[in-house]
Amino acid sequence: MVVYIWSLNISHKDSSELNQSANVSSGDPPGSHPGVSRTGHTVIAVCLGFILVFGCLNNLFVLLIFARFRSLWTPINLILLNISVSDVLVCLLGTPFSFASSLYGKWIFGQHGCKWYGFANSLFGIVSLMSLSILSYERYTAILRPTKADSSDFRRAWLCVTGSWLYSLVWTLPPFLGWSSYGPEGAGTSCSVQWQLRSTSSVSYVVCLFIFCLFLPLMLMIFSYGKILLIIKGVTKINLLTAQRRENHILLMIVTMVSCYLFCWMPYGVVALLATFGRRGLITPIISVVPSVLAKSSTVVNPVIYVLFNNQVRNPHRGLRCKKHIDLLPVLNCSMEQRQREDIKLFSKKLYEND
């Protein structure tokens, strides 16, 4: 038998999976998922509470630093600021919903709350992912520019920030228009895209979301930071004394940033694909909850990483004393900038001649 929902063909097996969504649509909260115990819901609530508190504190701290020190307002740092804004919005407008529901043991905010939660988490999450990849590319292109970056020219940075939000909207609005849908997921205390549906519409949406919002940003990060590492290695060969320490710092930065990206987001993407293409019942409620919590933990991890590896943010007073303040790389400082730029320009020329 075939059931038609939003003019899409969904098999009879899918209709049973939608019954839980129907509970939300009727305004009644779905019951606690039979696969998760009361203890399980409590553990999830504790994890979400930790993410909620420290995600807010970490990102608000970064925002306060930017508000306090105008010297940090550079084009590249504006993209870093966009990451903190999107992360704090997740903590304030998304995580409290799932935290309260986990304490209660079931979703308690009805149909509209479920759709809002799924949309908001997807919107802010994709903005953060795109900003991370754009930041890596901007750092790479900053090294290749033949002249000193204009710290007063914010047009390119604002274009990147605006583009990340528009791009995210392009991929998060379709579920409201009939291309897939938002509904309960995992333990029944949170909502997201309906990964488990097997209709052509839902499957195509999941695949596109994985490719364009997770895989391609990851490839851009690997390409950009890989190129940066090659340039730094070349500088090390040219001037060992001034570049060896910087190379080690850049290598640590690249490994940490890419690893955290994979740790926080890749499990969620993999589980979504398994739920879409794997056998039914393969993804249990507990298995689906873990990647969701890891993805939300990025709101805690991102500000720590980008403050830890950014001398400008860690030492904002240095920017006040430095007239030529450029964030080519997060570990460059003002006193080394001109000499390093000459080394980088020299090696960049040799690099492209060899290519």
Automatic annotation (TrEMBL):
It comes from the Eukaryota. The keyword NAD does not apply. The keyword Zinc-finger does not apply. Its main location: membrane. SUPFAM superfamilies: Family A G protein-coupled receptor-like. Residues 58-306 form the G-protein coupled receptors family 1 profile domain. Keywords: Chromophore, Disulfide bond, G-protein coupled receptor, Glycoprotein, Membrane, Photoreceptor protein, Receptor, Retinal protein, Sensory transduction, Transducer, Transmembrane, Transmembrane helix. GO terms for biological process: phototransduction; visual perception. It is found in: Membrane. This is Opsin-3 Encephalopsin. Coiled coil: none annotated. Belongs to the G-protein coupled receptor 1 family. Opsin subfamily. GO terms for molecular function: G protein-coupled receptor activity; photoreceptor activity. CDD domains: 7tmA_tmt_opsin. One of its GO terms (cellular component) is membrane. It is a multi-pass membrane protein. It comes from Triplophysa tibetana. Gene3D superfamilies: Rhodopsin 7-helix transmembrane proteins.
